[in-house]
Amino acid sequence: MKRLKEKILKEGLVLSEDILKVDNFLNHQIDPVLMQEIGQEFAKQFQQESVSKVLTIESSGIAPALMTALELGVPVVFARKKKSLTLTDSFYESKIFSFTKQEINTVVVSKKLLTNEDRVLIIDDFLANGQAAEGLIEVVKMAGAHLSGVGIVIEKAFQNGGARLRQAGIRVESLVEIASLANGQITFK
Amino acid sequence: MKRLKEKILKEGLVLSEDILKVDNFLNHQIDPVLMQEIGQEFAKQFQQESVSKVLTIESSGIAPALMTALELGVPVVFARKKKSLTLTDSFYESKIFSFTKQEINTVVVSKKLLTNEDRVLIIDDFLANGQAAEGLIEVVKMAGAHLSGVGIVIEKAFQNGGARLRQAGIRVESLVEIASLANGQITFK
C-alpha cells in the first residue's frame, strides 16, 4: 500500500533494530482517512472469504479492524486484555506475551460473540513474533470457527511470526512488509 | 439517538443498579454501522467548534472517537493506560480511577500530539462518575489546548459526572441519557 509506505517513511521512527514507532498515525494518534483506506484494502483482499466477523485485540488493532468490518458489513470483536467486572459470561481465554511491553496478557473473548458458524478475519496493526496473532487464532479454534485469514497493517518480515503462520497454511496478508530496521533505516521487502 | 436507544433496549443487559452491559455492540463487539452513525451525530453537534483533534481513552472510546474524527476530517488521539516501551517522548500524565475495574490507571498522551493550538473534542463511550472525562480534560489543560466539549455515547444520568462537568461550564453532549437502571429496567431520561 503506497500511501502507507509513504506515511511510514515520513512519520515512522526507528527506535532500535526491532522497534518501529508509528505513534503519529497508527497506535497513539490515528489518521482516520488512512485507516479507512486500510479497511477498504483488507475488505478487497478478503472479499471472497464470506467473512462473518472481524477479530482483533485491544487497543491498536481496533481502528483498522473497525474500518475493515465497516467495509465488509460485519461486526468486529476485540479481545480484551483483562477481565472486566462486566465480563460475566463464559469466555475463551488465551495467553499472549508482548515483547514490546515485556508482559504476559490474558486475553478473553465472550463465547456468545464467536461461534462455530463464524468465518473469522483477524486484523492487527503489527506482526512481529506472531504471539498476538497466534493467541487470536487459538480463540478462533476454541470457538470451532473457520479462520479466513490474517490481515496485518505492518509486518516486520525480519522476525519469524509471518513465516511461522504461513508455514502452518494460514493466509496472511500484510499491507506493508519491512525487511529491516538496521542502522536506523526502514527497508521495505 | 433513536437507533442507539433501540439497540440498548434490545441488546443491553442490566447487571446491577449501576452497570449496563453493552458488550454486544459497543465495548467488546462493535457494530460498525451504528458506530458510523454515532460519529456522524457527534460531528454534526460539534461542527461549529472548529475541532482540530478528537481525544479519547483506550479501549472502548476508540471506535466512536475514530468515526467522529473521520467525519470531522481531523486526527484522533487515544490516551494510553500504561507506558509502552515505544512511548519514549515526554507526555502528559493523568490518574483515572475506574469504578468498573476498581483500579487506578495512569493515562498518558504524548506531548507532541496535543499543543496549545489544538481545539479538542473529547469522546468516550460512557459517562458515569466522570473520572475518565476529567482525566482527559486535565490532559487538555496541561497542553494549554482549548476544550471544545465532551461527546458521550451513553450517560448514566443518575451518577454525578455529567452534572459536575456541566456545572463547571463544560459542554457535554450525550447521545443517550439513562435515568435509572433500578429493578433491572432501563429508563431513559
UniProtKB/TrEMBL annotation, chains A, B:
<comment type="pathway">
    <text>Purine metabolism; XMP biosynthesis via salvage pathway; XMP from xanthine: step 1/1.</text>
</comment>
<keyword id="KW-0963">Cytoplasm</keyword>
<comment type="function">
    <text>Converts the preformed base xanthine, a product of nucleic acid breakdown, to xanthosine 5'-monophosphate (XMP), so it can be reused for RNA or DNA synthesis.</text>
</comment>
<dbReference type="InterPro" id="IPR029057">
    <property type="entry name" value="PRTase-like"/>
</dbReference>
<feature type="binding site">
    <location>
        <position position="27"/>
    </location>
    <ligand>
        <name>xanthine</name>
    </ligand>
</feature>
<dbReference type="GO" id="GO:0006166">
    <property type="term" value="P:purine ribonucleoside salvage"/>
</dbReference>
<comment type="subunit">
    <text>Homodimer.</text>
</comment>
<dbReference type="GO" id="GO:0032265">
    <property type="term" value="P:XMP salvage"/>
</dbReference>
<feature type="binding site">
    <location>
        <position position="20"/>
    </location>
    <ligand>
        <name>xanthine</name>
    </ligand>
</feature>
<dbReference type="GO" id="GO:0005737">
    <property type="term" value="C:cytoplasm"/>
</dbReference>
<feature type="binding site">
    <location>
        <position position="156"/>
    </location>
    <ligand>
        <name>xanthine</name>
    </ligand>
</feature>
<dbReference type="Pfam" id="PF00156">
    <property type="entry name" value="Pribosyltran"/>
</dbReference>
<dbReference type="GO" id="GO:0000310">
    <property type="term" value="F:xanthine phosphoribosyltransferase activity"/>
</dbReference>
<dbReference type="GO" id="GO:0046110">
    <property type="term" value="P:xanthine metabolic process"/>
</dbReference>
<protein>
    <recommendedName>
        <fullName>Xanthine phosphoribosyltransferase</fullName>
        <ecNumber>2.4.2.22</ecNumber>
    </recommendedName>
</protein>
<dbReference type="InterPro" id="IPR000836">
    <property type="entry name" value="PRTase_dom"/>
</dbReference>
<keyword id="KW-0808">Transferase</keyword>
<dbReference type="InterPro" id="IPR010079">
    <property type="entry name" value="Xanthine_PRibTrfase"/>
</dbReference>
<dbReference type="InterPro" id="IPR050118">
    <property type="entry name" value="Pur/Pyrimidine_PRTase"/>
</dbReference>
<keyword id="KW-0328">Glycosyltransferase</keyword>
<feature type="binding site">
    <location>
        <begin position="128"/>
        <end position="132"/>
    </location>
    <ligand>
        <name>5-phospho-alpha-D-ribose 1-diphosphate</name>
    </ligand>
</feature>
<keyword id="KW-0660">Purine salvage</keyword>
<comment type="similarity">
    <text>Belongs to the purine/pyrimidine phosphoribosyltransferase family. Xpt subfamily.</text>
</comment>
<feature type="domain" description="Phosphoribosyltransferase">
    <location>
        <begin position="42"/>
        <end position="153"/>
    </location>
</feature>
